[in-house]
Amino acid sequence: MARRGLGPAEEYDYLFKVVLIGDSGVGKSNLLSRFTRNEFFLDSKSTIGVEFATRTLKVEGRTIKVQIWDTAGQERYRAITSAYYRGALGALLVYDVTKATTFENVNRWLKELRDHADSNIVVMLIGNKTDLKHLRAVATEDAQSFAEKEGLSFIETSALEATNVEKAFQMILSEIYRIISKKPLSSSEPAPGPTGGIKEGKTIEVSATNVDNTKKQCCST
Amino acid sequence: MEKKRANDEFEPGPILPSQSVDRFEFIKQEQNSSEGLSTSRSANEHEREERRIRKWRKIIGVGGSDWKQYVRRKPHVVKKLIRKGIPDCLRGLVWQLISGSRDLLLMNPGVYEQLVIYETSASELDIIRDISRTFPSHVFFQQRHGPGQRSLYNVLKAYSVYDRDVGYVQGMGFLAGLLLLYMSEEDAFWLLVALLKGAVHAPMEGLYLAGLPLVQQYLFQFEQLVKEHSPKLGQHFSEEMINPSMYASQWFITLFSYSFPFPLALRIWDVFLFEGVKVVFKVGLALLKFCHDDLIKLPFEKLIHALRNFPEDAMNPDTLLPLAFSVKVSKRLEELQQEYEKRNGGTLPKAGSTNRLLQAIKHKELSIKPERSNCVQKDDPSPRILH
């Protein structure tokens, strides 16, 4: 899904596509809104199909734009959502620390990724809702050792309390960046010029951003 | 265990008295703009509305007794009237009449009760999890374990038992929720049955069956129609790699009840229930046409945003619907369906699949009383099933 060439006014070095997956009700949409808009909704609607949001941030000294596809969690929806795994460089696989079944289903999600995503996709396991301390049903150590066994990075978050959300995205984006740039963490060079960022075009999602941010949206009133 | 937890969290408490609601009892957002309907009506308008309601009442007759005959005699008048919008106070009844659900209800006494009380569903926990996530900004559904949430649960659970192949799928709650604002649980249940099993129009259960086959078909048809009706925009979408699953899945899966302004969703449903799913295509195409000149300038990300956040003037039913009615799609929809079936080898159930519905009910071994063989007549938009 290579996209239009970068214009002179591009504001980022890399553009990464990431998907949010995991059982229904684990808090994927709130992780997304916390990360992209610093918002949280107690009474959010269930996601139907897919949602989309972006954010641009500094990772490893580079400006990274991340396009995030948030998917409906119910199994039946995989018929639509699995198409969005293609071309994704990262997957945030979310479970709910208060619901053991959502952790048990992580294996099924990993299989989904094996079946539909690129083989080199970076997967991060996220245990969300740590704020519900009295309801915890999945021990941190269990998830940690599972993640190690599967070769996934792991973090626990609370979208409600904004705990570790930023860190989770930073971690996965750094990991993607390290793989893309094929350099160890410590030796990254200063950011290349705005047009010099894409080094491995075949795996990177590149999107032209609108030069004129003030341009009006569809029929804006 | 799961059940208890599911109920414990993320459900808002009782509504605060200070919250103000709109005329459809949705809690107002800050700076909520006009609803597309003026709140203060002049005496003149009021009188006109009264006349309209009287006219509708006359057509419907007591409890809907005159409706069928009128529709048979003057189908075009009815179509025109419905396109202007069904009066809100009669909406629930008329929806039941035009969808064929009223007949299903009369033909299956006690079935709903049995489904709710005696049957268990594998989807119960899934349904509970989503109850507070369905129309969370409406007062009726906001109160935890309140009558709204209980009704919604009952309807969805009953349906998941009634049709175990479909069970419960996210999105169905928005259909059920919309219906429950206008009718009783049992009525809402049968209307859901009428829609998904195809009492009057083609069955829509494929929206929710494994693989979501009808969603995929509709998205295919819609993509082609966009290319044909708005070629430049279709081309722009292709170049920007926008496909309808990114913005229109919700339109089809929830029939515009998920995120559209409520007054618009209701007006769409009025017509959709009478004329069928082609209305959903027409409205979708009309939206794109309305915003065409702006959409065509936008790059990928802004396009996605714009396609999920249509401006207020596009969402005005009195502007959008006439435009939608001017879009002709029926013939192409059929052709595209055939093309899709050819490509994918297989057909989805057609309208009025008598045996399917009958079997579905018999399968439950519930007491069904076949009756009223006179309920089906030619050109009658009432059910062609269960007679």
UniProtKB/TrEMBL annotation, chain A:
GO molecular function: GTP binding; GTPase activity
SUPFAM superfamilies, alphabetized: P-loop containing nucleoside triphosphate hydrolases
Localization of this protein: Endomembrane system
Record PROSITE patterns: RAB, RAS, RHO
Topology of this chain in the membrane: Lipid-anchor
Chief location of this protein within or outside the cell: membrane
Key words, A-Z: GTP-binding, Lipoprotein, Membrane, Nucleotide-binding, Prenylation
Lineage: superkingdom: Eukaryota
GO cellular component terms attached to this protein's record: endomembrane system
Membrane-crossing residue ranges in chain numbering: none
Pfam families documented for this protein: Ras (PF00071)
UniProt similarity note: Belongs to the small GTPase superfamily. Rab family.
Protein name listed in UniProt: Ras-related protein RABA2a-like
Organism: Phoenix dactylifera
From TrEMBL, chain B:
InterPro entries named among the record's database cross-references: Rab-GAP-TBC_dom (IPR000195), Rab-GAP_TBC_sf (IPR035969), Rab_GAP_TBC_domain (IPR050302)
Alphabetically ordered keywords of this record: GTPase activation
Residue stretches making up the Rab-GAP TBC domain: 85-276
One family name in Pfam for this protein: RabGAP-TBC
Coiled coil spans: none
Gene3D superfamilies from the UniProt entry: putative rabgap domain of human tbc1 domain family member 14 like domains, Ypt/Rab-GAP domain of gyp1p, domain 1, Ypt/Rab-GAP domain of gyp1p, domain 3
Source organism superkingdom: Eukaryota
Region named Disordered: 1-22
GO molecular function terms attached to this record: GTPase activator activity; small GTPase binding
UniProt-recorded name of the protein: EVI5-like protein isoform X1
